[in-house]
Amino acid sequence: MSLSETATLEAVTIDSEGDFSYPEEYSHDAGIGLNEATLDYISNVKGEADWIREFRKKALQTFESKPNPTHWASRDLENIKFENIRYYLSKGQVPTRSWDDVPDDVKQTFERLGIPEKERKYLAGVEAQFDSEAAYSNIKVELEKEGVIFVNSTKGLREHPEIFRKWFGKVIPTGDNKYSALNSAVFSGGSFIYVPPGVKVSHPLQAYFRINAENFGQFERTLIIVDEGAEVTYMEGCTAPKFETATLHSAVVELVAMDNAKIQYITVQNWSNNVFNLVTKRGIAHENAEIRWIDCNIGSRLTMKYPGVIMKGRKARGEVISIALANDGQHQDTGAKMIHAADETTSNIVAKSISVGEGRSTYRGLVHIPKHLKGCKNNTECDALLINANSRTDTYPAISVRGNQHATQHEASVSQVSEDQIFYMQQRGLSEAAAMSLSVNGFVNDLVREFPMEYSVELKRLIDLEMEGSVG
Question: The whole model's pTM is what?
Answer without folding.
Answer: 0.87
